[in-house]
Amino acid sequence: MSNVIEITDFSAPELDVYARLTEAQLLNRFEPAKGLFIAESPKVIHRALDGGCEPVSLLMERKDIEGAAREVIARCPGIPVYTADEELLCNLTGYHLTRGVLCAMRRPKRPTLGEICAGASRVAVLENVQNPTNVGAIFRSAAALGMDAVLLTPGCSDPLYRRSARVSMGTVFQIPWTYTDSWPEAGMAQLGHLGFRTAAMALSDDSVSIDDPRLMAEERLAVVLGSEGDGLTPATIARCDYTVKIPMYHGVDSLNVAAASAVAFWQLRKG
Predict the structure, then answer these.
(1) Which alpha helices (DSSP H) does the chain contain, by range?
(2) Mean pLDDT throughout 144-162?
């Protein structure tokens, strides 16, 4: 393969994307059109390619060129394939590569809230969920358990961070998502304009059980989940149409947000 390049110089600028740029630098908030992300593992890369993401380069162990990454390379003709042995790549990236394959890709254009909600009946809203692992796990549950789209507030971790995308098993490329620029005021108003009722997952004196038939009867419902530590803000809870709780046993008061999302999505799915 003429595009396979053996790594001999750690300082080569074309390796910055893998070795020296932070997730925030890859995101490139000031020039979004130039933003990149790293997809890790063949499954995630395949799903990113299926979702229309454009590959820039690949980084992998030598043994994977004719092994785990063979089909990935075939789908990315002409792009550079940087390679070395496992120990060198760990030294370069600072971590062990999952199945030895990384792909630098251009960030896709972010859709609008209206676009992701077109035809949707169930939407997940994440308010300030900051842990990339939790974001990835919630996306995986959303895709598997009947959510049509995901809306994130500005304080949320980026779904295209390497860890988020990997934990999601690539479902961040399968389920539509976007950020809202203003939350809760403008974002909540826009959801209402689109015909959605909102359900805040939170404990309060007037919380209804997650199996309340009124929730199931809603044609369009947005399930709103809060941050890992503080949960939803009082302002968000006050603006939601419902406050919803998951019944607990043995004195447990709440679940991790990723676990709670799976329960909520399964119970509140449409059809």
Answers:
(1) 16-19, 23-27, 42-50, 62-65, 70-75, 86-93, 113-117, 132-144, 162-167, 185-193, 213-217, 234-239, 257-268
(2) 96
CA distance 103 to 114: 30
Task: Classify strands 221-225 and 197-201 as parallel, antiparallel or unpaired.
Answer: parallel
Residue 17 · residue 26 · CB < 8 Å? yes
Q: Is the dihedral of CA 189, 190, 195, 198 positive or negative?
A: negative
Tokens of 170: 């690539």
Token pair belonging to 71 = 């089909």
**Model's pTM, two decimal places?**
0.92
**CA–CA gap between residue 53 and residue 47 (Å, rounded):** 9
Residue of 108, 109, 96, 94 lying closest to 15 (CA atoms): 94
> Given the DSSP bridges, would you call strands 149-152 and 177-179 parallel, antiparallel or unpaired?
parallel
Tell me, what's the pLDDT at 21? Answer: 83
State both tokens at 187: 């974002």
Q: Are 122 and 148 spatial neighbours (Cβ–Cβ below 8 Å)? A: yes
Out of 85-89, 116-120, 145-149, 150-154, least confident range: 85-89
Distances (CA, A) of 27 to 6, 154, 159: 27, 14, 11
Encoded amino acid at 193, one letter:
H
Residues in CB range of 53: below 8 A, 6 or more apart: 39, 105, 106, 108, 173
Other CB atoms within a 10 A radius of the CB of residue 185 amount to: 12
